[in-house]
Amino acid sequence: MATISDYVLDAALSKLDTEADRIDITSQEATTYAQATSTYSLGNSTSLSFGAPEDGDTSGRKTVAAAITDGSVTATGTATHFAIVDVSASRLLATGSLTASQAVTSGNTFTLASFDVEIPDPA
């Protein structure tokens, strides 16, 4: 079985730091940029930053996203996922489940605790 070196995994995770410029909270997991930023989006923040790649919690590699404290809610609904995007390239970079769903109301703000984006080692 083939394996992927930490160097290659780190390069993938570094794209989040260099290209991600917005995080959306969404009503379901997005699979496209349009879904992440429009169809399922309930709000967003452009205050996004990631740490350097490091060992994953169980395997592989991860990067840690800093907490979001200034999210703007743009629609009312229940946020269940997040989507990280590169707006200038209209590219969806990563998605994941929120640790707990959150009811949000348009016009309010949202926060997200710091979280990991992890690439596990191949099985």
Chart the SSEs and their pairings.
Layout: H1 6-19, E1 22-26, H2 33-39, E2 41-45, E3 54-55, E4 61-65, E5 68-73, E6 77-86, E7 91-104, E8 109-112, E9 115-119
Give an overview in words:
The strands form two sheets. Strands 7-6-1-2-5-8 form a six-stranded antiparallel sheet. A three-stranded antiparallel sheet has the order 3-4-9, covered by helices on one side. It is elongated and about 50 Å long. With about 120 residues, it is an alpha+beta fold. It has two helices and nine strands, in the order αβαββββββββ.
Concise description?
With 123 residues, this protein is of the alpha+beta class. The chain has 2 helices and 9 strands; from the N terminus they run H-E-H-E-E-E-E-E-E-E-E.
Please compute the radius of gyration using only Cα atoms. 15 Å
Strand content: over 45%
Order of strands, main sheet, comes to 7-6-1-2-5-8
Shape summary: elongated
Structural class: alpha+beta
Low-pLDDT runs of 5+ residues are none
Helix content, binned percent: 10-25%
Number of DSSP strand runs: 9
DSSP helical segment count:
2
Task: Tell me the series of helices and strands, N- to C-terminal.
Answer: HEHEEEEEEEE
**What is the makeup of the main sheet?**
6 strands, antiparallel
**How many angstroms separate the termini?**
9 Å
Give the overall average pLDDT: 96
Primary descriptors:
123 residues; alpha+beta; 6-stranded antiparallel β-sheet; 3-stranded antiparallel β-sheet; 2 helices; 17% helix; 46% strand; elongated
